[in-house]
Amino acid sequence: MAEAAVARETLFALRETIARLEGRPIPALAAAARETLADRPGMGTAGIAKPLPAQTGLSQPLLPIGVDDLDAALQGGLPLDALTEIRSHGLRDAGVASGFALALAARLHAQASDTAVSKSPVLWIGDTVATMEAGVPYAIGVSDFGLEPAAFLQASPRKLDDALWVAEAALGSAAFALVILEVRGNPARFGLTESRRLALRAKAAGRPLFLLRQGGEEEASSALFRFSVEPAPAQARPLPDGSVLGGSIGHPAFRLTLEKSRNPAPLSITLEWNAHDRRFAPILDTQRPAFPGEHAAHSGADLSASADRPHRAQALGSVLAFDRQA
Question: Could you please report the per-residue DSSP string of 122-172?
């Protein structure tokens, strides 16, 4: 009898752990709640609570971007207890993807300025393969994007397996306001299974996790949202009187494509980031000069074809690196 009781308690503990990781009500606690609240007003005939309206404030915490069209596509903003993926098309765009992740981290700190989350640091986990190509975050650059370097920690594990372990441990500790995991491409050791494990860990801890995929392709993952980030031309710096300073470079700009969401069609939008105010602002297509690839780097009139020249190059003679010695 004693062995059966121990086995039953072990089974109950395992069920509660699985339920907690998957974000479902814990069976034992739910049963106790039904017994305690069975006689309270608003309960059903079997002691089950009636559905609450949506405006009761029980929804998951969100991080709004501050742009109406994008927040509408995100159904209010980025969830702060889930996995969000940010990817760049190539390693040459690693800077813009990293900058967008830092901008979101700065906005998260600004939104939680009066809570304990604002005092929690941001943890950046960079895989060795990714940092060899994309580099590591620079303190001055982190500050320029609106995030205090004192609230920014960096980890550089030697292997991807170690990076995944650090990410899970950081989420489980709930000591960080945000965890950013940077990987290169689509490694074989980071697939749907590892993605789901990280997503469940973020859900259980109630902390956001950004997967920063540098130079990767689209693949199946447990991320609720996935952004594709490309560089966009920055506008001229605005002046206090409303004019712009000619020949200057203004706020950094991002070309975002919401590839994965609850909406059937992807959304593309161009945003600029104001690090001083810690907010995004949309850029209309009529305001931008051009997107990358729409014109040559050195645009201008093409040279005319040469005339009165032989149809083929003449054969080369003997070429010597030094003059002949007498």
Answer: EEEEE-HHHHHHH----HHHHHHTT--GGGEEEE--SSHHHHHHHHHHHHH
- pLDDT tens digits for the chain (326 residues)? 555 555 666 666 666 666 665 555 554 444 444 444 344 444 443 333 333 333 333 356 899 999 999 999 998 999 999 999 999 998 889 999 999 999 999 999 888 765 555 678 999 999 888 888 888 888 888 988 888 888 999 999 989 999 999 999 999 998 999 999 999 999 998 999 999 999 999 999 999 999 999 998 989 889 999 999 999 988 888 777 877 787 788 889 999 999 998 877 778 999 999 998 899 999 876 555 554 455 445 555 555 656 666 666 666 666 666 666 65
Total structural domains in the chain?
A: 2
| 16 and 93 fall within a common domain | no
**Shared domain check, 149 and 95:** yes
CATH number of 90's domain: 3.40.50.300
217 is a domain residue: yes
| Rounded-to-5 percentages of helix, strand, coil across the chain | 35, 20, 45
Residue 308 within any structural domain of the chain: no
Rounded Cα–Cα distance for residues 23 and 262 (Å): 19
Domain that residue 16 falls in: 1-29
Tokens of 132: 């060899």
5 and 108 within one domain: no
Does 88 map to a domain? Answer: yes
Pick the last residue of a domain from 265, 282, 299.
282
Alpha carbons 43 and 49: distance in angstroms, whole number? 5
Cα distances from 166 to residues 39, 128, 131, 273, in angstroms, run 46, 13, 16, 30
pTM for this entry: 0.69
Q: Are strands 78-79 and 62-63 parallel, antiparallel or unpaired?
A: antiparallel
